[in-house]
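Form P-L/3: holo structure prediction, ligand fe (iii) ion.
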Amino acid sequence: MKSGQEYIESIKALGLKARIMGSEESNLTEHPLVTPSLRAMAATYECAEKEESKALFTAKSSLTGKTVNRFAHLHQSADDLVNKVKMQRYAGNCTGCCFQRCVGMDAANAVFSVTYECDAEHGTDYHQRFIEFWKNMQENDLVMDGAMTDPKGDRGKRPKDQVDPDLFLRVVERKQGGVVVRGAKLHQTGMVNSHEVLVMPTLTMRPGEEDWAICFAVPTNAPGIKHIYGRQASDTRKLEGCACDVGNSSFGGQEVMTVFDDVFVPHERIFLNGETDFSGMLVERFASYHRQSYGGCKVGVGDVLIGASALIATMHGVEKASHIKDKLVEMIHLNETLFACGAACSAMGKAWAAGNYGPDMLLANVCKLNVTRFPYELARLATDIAGGLLGTLPSELDLNDPISGPYIKKYLAVAPGVKVEDRFKVLRFIENLVAGAGSVAYLIESMHGAGPPTAQRIMIGRQGDLEGKMVKVKGLLGIQ
Ligand code: SF4
Ligand code: FE
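OUTPUT (holo model):
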């Protein structure tokens, strides 16, 4: 297994390039807009080394019998699934942001299970290919990014009916030894901090849409791949050299738009190729795993938002006010409700035919639907507790300025013993999560990551067994 530093070196060795704010950047591991996200990813390695957390962050590989990072693990029991969300909560506590490594873990578990069932139906050999591929990922402790979301163009049209058929990633050429793919994947969490990307279809494909029913893996630096870095609110504060104003200067998330401009994929890296009848299963399973994930990671970030809210209340000397205590209890209640959902869908998980475990689909969708709401309420309560300075605080440069600094320190003084600098730090940390770069993962991604609320409602409607519930009432009332 790699250390955090070895991981960073291994990403550096890939020589990835990305377009960032209008120019091509090739030294990504040193770029100030990228490094906080790289450190957050590195934390998933460091936690696997630390005495306190290594039991949670490692597991015994079902493929090799060796110890691997849990982010590269194929879950072998409901306990493994519970440990997954516990690990994500812990990582959220350590970083206060999105640590990016879950998408590939979720994609791998989905692909492992679906390829097995696809092979049984179609006589293909995708499962064995994937096993060989994944062994290497585990052995070398590599990061896999998972890529699902296509741009989708005109939402009223199927992939083949779009004016531009590339709006859904597709096979454009079949040749000796592999296929050539073209398209783009949006919202790619941690893409340029990853060694490989596992690409999946974005929706259930129908007969006639075989070219879009494609699943494969390629290195993130494969020829033809272009990365375009996503902006986040207040991101250029990272370029100003004022750590305090960034809010969380140590860690941060990363979102990328990745274009596949005629990328060649060799056969041994293809895990679905035209079997439209298994595309929907793949989408649903990946979504369920990722909806489970949010019952861990968002809770971990929620913990530190609650901690910051309690801390600022104490700094302001209002920690004993009953309305403050009540708001903090409300925040804890909401956050633990999310964790209860994450733990429950994990504990109720079952083995797929392939042998690895997946979460209970209904409960995973309930979990994620709550995640589309509760972090917003937590952010509202944190904003309430923090006060209006959250939106009007002067810069760190003014705090340290010989003319304005003394006034700021005099007039923004709070409870005795509290340094104004520390008050700044906590307010900026809260600002980061409710309105700054951190709100991308904590709020926008809570809404849309792993699918928007309507997608969860559709699944809940399907899995909710209304028929069975009506039968129960009929039985109770003696209705034939
Ligand atoms: Fe992991 Fe959460 Fe980031 Fe998704 S949003 S990659 S589950 S930390
Ligand atoms: Fe996500």
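COMMENT: Residues 283-471 form a domain with the Butyryl-CoA Dehydrogenase, subunit A; domain 3 fold (CATH 1.20.140.10).
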